[in-house]
Amino acid sequence: MLNDPQSNKADAGSAPIIPNETGTVAHPALNEVSRAKESGWSAQYCLTLQIVDTVAIAIAMAITVFAFLPSPPYLSGLNAVIYWSFTPMLALVWIIALGFTGSRDRRIIGSGLDEYRLVISASIIFFAGLAISSYWFFIPLARTLFVVTLPLGVFLLLLGRWAMRGFLTRRRLLGRAKTPALVIGLPEEVELLLKRLSSDVEASYKPVGVCFVGNSGTTETGGLPVVDPDAIKEAVATGQYGAVIITGGMSHTEVRDLAWNLENYPVDLMFAPSMVDFAGPRIMVSSVAGLSVVHVDLPKFSDWRTFVKRAFDIVFSALALIVLAPVFLVVAIVIKLDDKGPVFFRQERIGIKGKPFVIHKFRSMKVDAEQQVQKLIAEQGGTALLFKVKNDPRITRVGAILRKYSIDELPQFWTVLLGGMSIVGPRPQVAREVAEYADMHYRRLLVKPGITGLWQISGRNDLTVDESIALDLRYVENWSFVGDLLIMLKTVRVVLKREGAY
Q1: What is the mean pLDDT of residues 434-456?
Q2: What is the rounded distance in angstroms from the CA atom of residue 305 to the CA atom of residue 312?
Q3: More confident residue, 165 or 80
Q4: Is 50 helix (H, G, I), strand (E, B) or coil?
Q5: In order of start, what are the domains of the chain with their CATH numbers?
Q6: Strands 179-185 and 78-82, how do they pair?
Q7: Among 228, 389, 417, 455, which is least packed, fewest CB within 10 Å?
Q8: Measured at the alpha carbon of residue 311, what is the angle toward residues 309 and 312, in degrees to the nearest 5?
């Protein structure tokens, strides 16, 4: 399919390869073409990100010197050195550390946890080096730098990154700030990747061309131009692609030759393997017998992370119940005045390992709503799994408002405190839904269901049954504490925007 250097020597020239007048061997494979510098949206965004980081660090340093250090702010025992002359150098090194760790790499900005993780890692490494240098060179630095500046700076840096990510997301919703990509692979795998990228409006890559390595048949390309496998290098040379994504179907030699052909062009070469449900923390690449192999950790459901998750659930849900107590009182009065029915709705759901538990919610439907459910299921096609009705006639006037802003779900913090649920997890389902599970769906029950989850931040009720189940299974396989925190933060945005709520 792709040109093999060993079998296409004539393409490089029919003359034998001999040294020229200068004694240098001439061959097209040895020509060097300087890669174009990063340009477009990513260069501008990374520059803005560097400015935001600088402002965040400057504010943290200024607050430390003004509010927490003695006046005048001299280094302890060194009256000739004032912190104002010292902190700019510290800020500069901190900014350099953020760049050195790759926290502004365009491949990780805008999505996922790696950007936040690298910001935290760079900051900790910088202050660890600062502490060691202080001890080694007998520089009496104030503990305030470590107690105040580090946590304050990290908070401001993360806040800035979060704000910039919101800005980037808004641009991507308009179809901007995306890297044009050529997708290569077997027809069915290309089609799957195109579907996933088109459904994720926040994705950083936008397919603008496809290349099939097998029989294309009647594969749907979404109107994208199809590139011939033997013309990939020429297509990339036009400059219309910023990335080449391989989904599979290519041999080792073909992939190697493609990488060689593209190495002098300003494009990213990426692989989207079929194991799409394995997240980064579970994947490690190593070398075995000269080959790169991918190790995938098997999922764990009963290690120390489970203890941390439960401890967090207890603390967070208890605090939430205390803070939201006034809201509970107002909502309870409004529900009672609306139709005189009960304030809370209790229902048995199926939890971890198939154990039933009772969920608690503000009642948003009529008192006889459960008696009508079977009729509605039959009218909607007879499938109970993830059953939802967009204009459900059982919802009360007050209930419509509660659901619009997800207020009806607040009592679930009590369910979390009792241990039936977690803050983050798969959607809790009733027995009639579990009865329709396929074998793989039972993996949803390996962790506790949650108030929010990937389904909540990825479309909620706008998702199909298959999409919702896939998101729940992905969470079960790859959950992490940091991932839970990110889901919680995104949930706030989704709820405020009322995305997919009905």
Answers
A1: 88
A2: 10
A3: 165
A4: helix
A5: 41-173 (no CATH), 179-274 (3.40.50.720), 304-497 (no CATH)
A6: unpaired
A7: 228
A8: 65
